[in-house]
Specification:
- The structure holds three protein chains of three kinds.
- By secondary structure, chain A is mainly alpha-helical.
- Chain A has a domain at 86-291: MetI-like fold.
- In chain A, helix 9 (189-197) crosses helix 10 (202-231).
- Chain A has helices spanning 6-13, 18-57, 62-65, 79-86, 89-119, 126-138, 145-154, 161-186, 189-197, 202-231, 234-239, 247-252, 262-282, 284-296, and strands at 255-256, 259-260.
- By secondary structure, chain B is mostly helical.
- In chain B, helix 7 packs across helix 10 (175-200) and helix 10 crosses helix 12 (217-244).
- The longest helix of chain B has 37 residues, at 280-316.
- The radius of gyration of chain B is 25 Å and the shape is flat.
- Chain C is an alpha+beta fold.
- Chain C has helices at residues 8-11, 14-18, 23-42, 56-63, 65-71, 84-96, 112-117, 125-130, 141-146, 169-175, 185-195, 217-226, 243-259, 269-277, 291-294, 336-347, 349-359, 370-374, 376-381, 386-395, 419-435, 440-461, and strands at residues 46-53, 75-82, 104-108, 148-149, 152-153, 156-161, 163-168, 283-287, 306-310, 323-328.
- In chain C, helix 13 (243-259) packs across helix 21 (419-435) and helix 21 runs antiparallel to helix 22.
- The longest helix of chain C has 22 residues, at 440-461.
- The termini of chain C are far apart.
- Classes of the chains: A mainly alpha, B mainly alpha, C alpha+beta.
- Chains in contact: A-B, A-C, B-C.
- At the A-B interface, helix 1, helix 2, helix 5, helix 6 and helix 7 of A face helix 2, helix 3, helix 5, helix 6 and helix 7 of B.
């Protein structure tokens, strides 16, 4: 294992397998390649068109947002986006940010040592512990919402952002432990043993020896946790009211019995998704790499 | 199990013989210690509330009728297991999960194959393609419900008008199809990323060897690429199932489980029983039944997948 | 909230908005806002959390909160606005489980008395009596009565509604038919058959079919009462398969299937509103609140074309329902005095006047105060429907719905805590029958089971 580990990692990290790509490009030649490229672009654009349409709609006026046939060209307006920001959007954004960042930090803090223990130095019943972690992910959260609600009410933690932080941590911890364990398996155990022999403490080993090696894995894990925390809806809608409500809850408030204001809704949805979309875009390389490491181990 | 326990043994330096036993025990604890915070945290937050759920499930307790709380034994379970709507929701859960995971995996493989070559704007295309996975599911559901599926103003109706499907009220007439569509759109990018990771770890020499042998593209795909991707696909199916089986927001936003209860899955149905019916006892019993059912299914699935992951590791070590 | 924000001057600048495209800008905006939230929370004032249903009239109240802030600068308002069903679930959970998240909640005449009896709501009468000029005698009597427990009000009405029958005078003329002064349901059914397709795409009548106890069951229940049907006899035996109940269900389902709007099984109040105001139905039996849209030139194609007849009857003298959105203070609130300041602001005569002057008199929350109906400006704006609306509300008698004694109260609903759940389940069956997925008999047989299990729990208690 240790011998073969670095090979796929480095090939995925650098320009991914240049050889076959080059070979195929040679073989297909100009015309076929151009056709395939065009096809790829077309498919990608069609696939992502709902998202593009969402962004487009957020720059429309309400009258243009609902037309038959749909309007493609129009005079864009910032009214909807300004309206969303004016309607107290920012506190929701702040709450989402706190819940996402704090829970992700907590996941890494708790998950890294656990993943380490489950990888480099196998504990008895490793598989059972892993199995336990993963199985908690499968339990329907709806089955525990009432006890959690009652408990939170008892200790005056309803509508508190820290309740969400705790729950999101528990929600993401299993996946994080599972993913990070795979990344730890990548680390040549000789390196760790050497550091240990020199008397380095466990936190030191983790910090200065392991972390640099598995930074992309940790980044991918953190990113996945952030996506799921940012997008979480069930706990948010049931356990918050005003002080701790996050952006998905904000979106629900845009539905009225009078029907939907599409342009405003689109603007709200676009703004609400923007932070995590941008982070995801910036970190996509880590995501592919992290997942590839996670998958094979 | 034994595999992982013994795996690194060869690399382990041999400790001095006399203190071996004591050192081994201390070592055992130092190994377990880092695991404990996460383990205890998870047990406290996920398992403790569930004990209360079991406790509630044995009671007749309607939240809006104070003073109605009393022990009823297993009566709630009898009611749940004979509730036709509960069983319907269970069936919906299976259908939605299976359809969503399989279709998004197929779409994901297709997209990944297209991306696994160099071409102009490849980075941009990949960036575009992962976007649906990043958008808040609540927003995705609203997007599909309104601007896409609306029978009058929706984009889907507009595009399908030439095929005579312009006036279909998708969300009302085909609620499950609508929900699955939104979910597939959301999850395909995730599958694509996993498969892409798999494709990029594929050694080029194998493919070249195949080309030299004169294998057709389809043969190469089924005989070389797919087997190589197997574990990536399994991982995608596992993670996808874990998340999709608990889907709540998409159904809440798009169909509210309707029309009637046509598109309610278990999480949504239990939510309704809890927050519309306020029958805490019965909804707790449903929760327990679902957990038992899930564990039974998960045992099978997880053991299967764990076997492949763990045994490969053993073989490699 | 807005006034506490330290960045008000930059908030609306387009340059700032344009910068949102960059991730950095988004993050800086957020951190700025986190500061704002902290300042607001750390101030001297009281923070009131208000849970409210996102109907247009309530949205107007939120936009007008600056007026409240002028009078109460030390009170900071935070609104939680949710669609009806979600708001109900959240508010009920919070109140019943003692969550204590809210200082003021929007409920209705369905909840008020039950919750007052459970001790979940603050008694508002002392506040009312101590507030000069609030004039609770001005509330329409049936509404005041329905929001009172043992003579004291436990919630105050924001707006009230009954039901009536809107019809297109122009289409009636074209078809050569006339609307009787007090129509019966049989007459309405004949008229619907006559008018169906009088113009292309025009349905004879529009009726709700969407599941939900507040949706299809509201018109259905008011019809059931006047047909002489009931949910339970006095001993809590469910009566959903009784001849009267079946007759009503068959009548309703047949009427809407044969002469109703397309897609009836999925149309709620909002969809019917669109159908009728777009000119696609000749009649519509629904809440009196419809007028603020039907008579609004901005959203309706049939302004001024409608006549309004009282709710159709069959065996009783009166057939409309009674419903009101009202505001209450949970017993768990720590800021009851400040909460009352807000409640009295939002339900006062002064508020209604302000909406009338700010947004126009057709948009005021109607049906709560006698003085609104007597206001000349309102009378002018609402001449077509003010009178039938007022009569509808004043004639409603929730204590004696139908023709025979029942163990419950309520017209459009049953005032028992289980009705939210039971009503939803029965409405799903009814909706399925309207969609043609099952027969009326099948729907009622299943519904009878649901109803009987609720009835049994009351039998045990007796």
């Amino acid at each position: 294992m240790t011998a073969t580990a670095p090979a796929p990692r480095s090939s995925a990290a650098a320009a991914p397998n240049p050889r076959p790509a080059a070979a195929r490009a040679r073989r297909r030649g100009g015309v076929g390649g151009a056709a395939l490229t065009t096809l790829t672009w077309a498919i990608a654009l069609v696939f992502v068109s709902p998202a593009l349409w969402l962004v487009l709609t957020s720059f429309k006026s309400e009258a243009i947002a609902q037309t038959d046939p749909p309007t493609l060209f129009f005079q864009p307006t910032l009214d909807q986006i300004a309206g969303v920001i004016d309607s107290d959007f920012l506190p929701y954004l702040a709450n989402s940010l706190i819940a996402t960042l704090a829970s992700t930090a907590l996941v890494l803090l708790l998950g890294t040592p656990a993943a380490y223990a489950l990888s480099i130095r196998p504990v008895k019943r490793t598989k059972d512990v892993l199995f336990f972690f993963i199985s908690t992910k499968m339990l329907p959260v709806v089955a525990v919402i009432v006890p959690i609600y009652v408990a939170a009410a008892e200790v005056a933690m309803l509508d508190s952002i820290w309740t969400l932080v705790v729950l999101y941590t528990a929600m993401n911890l299993p996946i994080a432990v599972w993913m990070m364990r795979s990344f730890f398996l990548e680390v040549p155990s000789g390196v760790v043993e050497a550091a240990r022999m020199e008397g380095a403490s466990l936190p030191r080993v983790l910090w200065s020896v392991m972390l640099p090696i598995m930074a992309p894995g940790v980044a991918a894990t953190a990113l996945i946790c952030m996506i799921f925390s940012w997008n979480e809806f069930f706990f948010a809608v049931n356990l918050t009211a005003s002080q701790a409500a996050t952006v998905p809850v904000f979106l629900v408030g845009f539905i009225t019995s009078e029907g939907l204001y599409w342009a405003q809704l689109a603007a709200a949805a676009t703004l609400a998704s923007l932070p995590i979309v941008i982070i995801g875009w910036m970190a996509q390389r880590q995501l592919v790499r992290g997942l590839s490491m996670g998958a094979v181990k | 199990m034994s595999a992982t326990a013994t795996a690194p043994a060869p690399q382990r330096p041999v400790p001095a013989a006399r203190s071996a036993k004591r050192a081994e025990r201390a070592r055992g604890w130092s190994l377990r210690a880092p695991l404990l915070p996460a383990l205890i945290f998870t047990i406290l937050v996920t398992q403790l509330p569930f004990l209360f759920t079991i406790f509630y499930s044995l009671q007749s307790w309607n939240l809006v009728r104070p003073g109605s709380r009393s022990f009823t034994g297993l009566a709630n379970y009898a009611a749940v297991l004979t509730d036709a709507q509960f069983l319907g929701a269970a069936l919906n859960t299976v259908v939605i999960t299976a359809a969503c995971v399989l279709i998004s995996m197929a779409v994901g493989i297709g997209l990944a194959m297209l991306l696994d070559r160099k071409f102009a704007g490849r980075g941009v295309v990949r960036t575009l393609l992962i976007t649906p996975f990043l958008i808040i599911p609540v927003a995705t559901a609203l997007l599909w419900k309104t601007t896409m599926f609306d029978p009058v103003f929706g984009l889907v109706g507009f595009v399908l008008t030439p095929f005579g499907l312009g006036d279909v009220d998708w969300v009302s007439q085909f609620p499950v199809v609508s929900v699955v569509t939104a979910l597939v759109w959301q999850w395909s990018p995730f599958m694509m990323l996993l498969v892409l990771a798999g494709l990029q770890s594929q050694g080029g020499d194998v493919i070249e060897a195949g080309q030299v042998d004169g294998a057709s593209k389809w043969q190469m795909f089924t005989n070389i690429t797919l087997p190589h991707l197997r574990r990536y696909i399994e991982l995608g199916v596992l993670l996808g199932s874990i998340y999709v089986v608990n889907t709540f927001d998409t159904i809440y936003m798009m169909t509210q489980g309707g029309p009637g209860t046509a598109s309610a899955n278990l999480p949504f149905y239990i939510y309704q029983r809890t927050f519309l019916g306020f029958d805490i006892g019965q909804s707790a019993a449903m929760g327990v039944v679902v957990v038992i059912g899930t564990i039974a299914v998960a045992m099978l699935a997880l053991r299967l997948i764990f076997r492949t992951f763990m045994s490969d590791q053993e073989a490699n070590s | 909230m807005e006034k506490e924000n330290p960045l008000p001057s930059t908030k609306r600048r387009p340059g700032r908005l344009a910068a949102l495209g960059a991730a950095g800008a988004a993050v800086s905006l957020v951190s700025g806002c986190a500061g704002a939230g902290a300042v607001a929370a750390g101030g001297d004032g009281t923070t009131l959390v208000v849970a409210i249903v996102s109907n247009p009239q309530m949205e107007d109240a939120i936009s007008l909160r600056a007026d409240f802030a002028r009078e109460h600068p030390d009170v900071n308002l935070r609104f939680v606005t949710l669609p009806e069903n979600e708001a109900r679930a959240k508010i009920t959970t919070s109140i019943a489980a003692g969550g204590g998240e809210f200082d003021a909640v929007m409920i209705s005449n369905y909840e008020t008395r039950m919750w007052a009896e459970n001790g979940w709501l603050a008694n508002l009468q002392p506040h009312i009596d101590a507030t000069e000029g609030y004039d609770d005698e001005d509330f329409l009597e049936p509404i005041r009565e329905d929001l009172s427990y043992q003579g004291d009000m436990y919630s105050v009405p924001f707006y009230g509604e009954s039901s009536f029958l809107a019809y297109r005078k122009d289409l009636f003329e074209k078809a050569g038919v006339e609307m009787p002064e007090n129509p019966t349901w049989s007459e309405v059914a004949d008229l619907a058959a006559e008018l169906d397709g009088v113009e292309e795409g025009v349905a004879g009548i529009c009726l709700r079919g969407l599941p939900g106890w507040g949706e299809v069951l509201a018109p259905f229940n008011s019809m059931l009462n006047t047909f002489g049907g009931r949910w339970y006899d006095r001993d809590w035996n469910a009566q959903l398969t009784s001849p009267e109940f079946r007759r009503t269900a068959e009548f309703y389902v047949d009427l809407v299937r044969e002469h109703g709007q397309p897609g009836a099984a999925n149309s709620g109040f909002g969809d019917c509103l669109t159908h009728y105001s777009q000119g696609n139905a000749a009649m519509w039996y629904d809440a009196t609140a419809m007028v603020s849209t039907v008579e609004d030139p901005e959203s309706s194609k049939v302004v001024g074309k409608s006549g309004y007849a009282p709710a159709p009857v069959q065996k009783t003298g009166y057939g409309g329902w009674l419903y009101t959105w009202s505001l209450a203070i949970p017993a768990s609130s720590q800021h009851k005095d400040a909460a009352w300041d807000f409640l009295s602001w939002m339900t006062d005569k002064e508020y209604i006047r302000m909406v009338g002057e700010e947004y126009g008199w057709q948009r005021v929350p109607p049906g709560s105060r006698v003085s609104t109906f007597e206001n000349p400006e309102y009378q002018e704006a609402a001449s077509a429907y003010a009178e039938p609306m007022r009569e509808g509300i004043e004639n409603a008698d929730p204590k004696n719905p139908g023709t025979r004694p029942v163990p419950y109260t309520g017209i459009g609903f049953l005032a028992i805590p289980e009705f939210q759940d039971l009503g939803t389940r029965v409405s799903q069956q009814l909706s399925a029958a309207i969609a043609g997925q099952i027969s009326v008999d099948e729907a009622l047989a299943q519904s009878q089971q649901y109803a009987q299990s609720v009835g049994d729990s009351y039998k045990e208690a007796q």
